Amino acid sequence: MKPDQLQPALAELDSLGLRRRRRVLDGAQGARVTVDGRDYLSFSSNDYLGLANHPVIAAAARAAAERCGVGAGAAHLLTGHHRLHHDLETELAAFVGLPSALLFSTGYMASLGVIPALLDRHGEVFEDRLNHASLVDGAVLSRARLTRYPHLDLDWLDRKLGESTARTKLIATDTVFSMDGDLAPLPELLELAEKHDAWLYVDDAHGFGVLGEAGGGALSSSRLTPHPSLIYLATLGKAAGVAGAFVAGSQELVEWLVNRARTYIYTTAQPPLLAAATSASLKLIAAETWRRERLGELITRLKAGAADLPWPLMASDTPIQPLLVGGNLEALRLADGLRERGILIPAIRPPTVPQGEARLRISLSAAHSAEDIEQLLSALRELA
Predict the structure, then answer these.
(1) Domain of residue 269, residue span
(2) CA–CA distances in Å: residue 206 to residues 19, 47, 219
(3) Are residues 306 and 264 in the same domain?
(4) Is the pTM of this model over 0.90?
């Protein structure tokens, strides 16, 4: 696009209800926030367990900053791999029940590193149609053939895997689909991976900390055990309340990624204080089971109360509760009406979701109360 084409293109986004604008958060993340100078009840973060502002995690970060400074100062393969990083990788592997783990700066960088490290133009990546953009971009960057299968259609996937003549095959899927809130059938996908000699790469960004008895994520809730073909990704900026991501799997896989994942090799390591904060978060996730219990209660209350609304909640048993509106401008108007009433929920529009399926993405947190849910439902009924 040429420079003189930018302004007309932005104007077109405005006319279609597709232009995004940033809002400025003052203070800490939580169920109650101050955004653009106004106080809101927020259902718009991924802080599912209410840990982003936990004093124990903040104290761990402060203590590490005093001891280790702030910046890592170098890439992991130079002198940036701190003892705190190293110990956290051991903790994370044990937390999800896999042999080894590797820290990345973000989940996006993890997928951009992992998939091209394992596949080239002789490979083929099979992705659920509703996968997160990072998985799609990782496949494109690898130069492998990209085949996208209809959402959760395992028969279609089985057939295409059988037809493929690729040298290396990889199935990639979200565990909790970020805009719909539904779950991938991981045991069945692993069976397909075994059957067709393929990798299974699972992105548990929205399941880690939330699913499983101790918050161990989708592998725990699906009762999957370590498997040579399994690659597990989780992010640490959602339920864990910190920042970053990790990939876990076999020791051989992690060693290969250390040597071949470009987004790991060619970037400065995360500040060690974040590793200390994440370690503190893991202990809270495992010990404070009431956070997941409260989430379950809030999900049940929201579903029951929304049954009489003109906009249906999509089928989800996770903290992601999408309210399907339809048109882009209609979704924006509903979000604006809630904001006028002091409630913040984002309107999700194409290309993030399909045309005609714009929605409000209600994100629940253990920091919410039953009264917060009733306040939201009352505002929605008024707008209806």
Answers:
(1) 55-287
(2) 25, 10, 12
(3) no
(4) yes
Count CA atoms within 13 Å of residue 103 on its CB side.
32
Per-residue pLDDT, 85: 98
Helix (H) or strand (E) holding 89: helix 83-96
Residue of 140, 222, 125 lying closest to 170 (CA atoms) = 125
Task: Please list the residues that pair with 104 across neighbouring strands.
Answer: 245
DSSP string, 294-313: HHHHHHHHHHHHTTTSSSPB
Mean pLDDT for all residues in the chain = 96
For 277-327, how does the pLDDT look when each residue is reduced to its tens digit (9 = 90+)? Answer: 999 999 999 999 999 999 999 999 999 999 999 999 999 999 999 999 999
Enzyme catalytic residues: 178, 206, 238
236's tokens: 């640490």
Query: Are residues 207 and 294 located together in one domain of the fold?
Result: no
- Bridge partners (DSSP) of residue 34 are 26, 39
**Residue whose pair of structure tokens reads 């009406």 in the numeric block:** 337
Q: Is the peptide bond before 351 cis (omega within 30 degrees of 0)?
A: yes
Same domain, 210 and 101: yes
Number of folded domains in the chain? Answer: 2
Per DSSP bridges, beta strands 100-104 and 38-42 are unpaired
**Helix/strand/coil percent split, the chain, to 5:** 45, 20, 40
Same domain, 319 and 336: yes
- Residue 351: pLDDT band (50, 70, 90) is confident
Residues 260 and 163 reside in one and the same domain: yes
Q: Are 309 and 319 in contact (CB under 8 A)?
A: no
Q: Is the separation of the CB atoms in 109 and 259 below 8 Å?
A: no
Phi, psi of 176 (to 5 degrees): -110, 120
Q: Is residue 237 part of a domain?
A: yes
Count of C-beta atoms within a 10 Å radius of residue 262: 13
Instruction: Looking at the structure, tell me whether residues 223 and 303 fall in a common domain.
Output: no
> Does residue 278 come out as left (phi exceeding 0), alpha (psi in the -120 to 50 range) or beta?
alpha
Residue 4 inside a domain? The answer is no
